[in-house]
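Justification of computing resources. Each target in the renewal requires a structure prediction run like the one illustrated here; the chain below, 196 residues long, is used simply to show the kind of job we budget for.
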Amino acid sequence: MEMESGHYLDLTSLLSLMPNHEAYERIIADNTVAFIEATGSSHNHQAWKGGYLDHIVETMNIACQLYQTLNAARRLPFQLYEALEVMFLHDLEKPFKVGKLLIFNNPANGTPMQIEATKANRKALRADLIDKYGIQITLDQRNALEYVEGVPDSKYTPGERTMGELAAFCHCCDILSARLWHDKGHVVRGGSTSWE
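Resulting structure tokens:
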């Protein structure tokens, strides 16, 4: 398999590794323009037009390589596809963020909406989209989506393990893309043996 040879996979190949790939393909098809135009962030990582998808593909490719390496060293308590689903979903609200607003069609009834792009509203939109597309996620995946960017001080409790194993893995994938390779992903072609 190309993944096992260290190839950089394109989005179609990455989605094919997920059992419920049709739902994810529908999300892209229904929101193609927003996905293609969105940046990965305003200025910290993949901050160019199309950077959102570049960041998603980058984190999913990092997940493939990390999973293969770590699982060979010590069996991981989750499947690769579970991490890939989290990496696809972790910034799902970003294509709908325009300045300080979220602009989208209400997933419940399709009416156009504009709301302030607060952290809580972004999280709620992501949850609504996951529900709208019928994506079933496990408790471990919920935990990973909650803590993919790390555990904030407000949620840290000494003596308790807030971030689960899948969340820790996904956090590593996200942080590597956003901080180590913040300027990578826009020149890589899927299916390539090169990551440059």
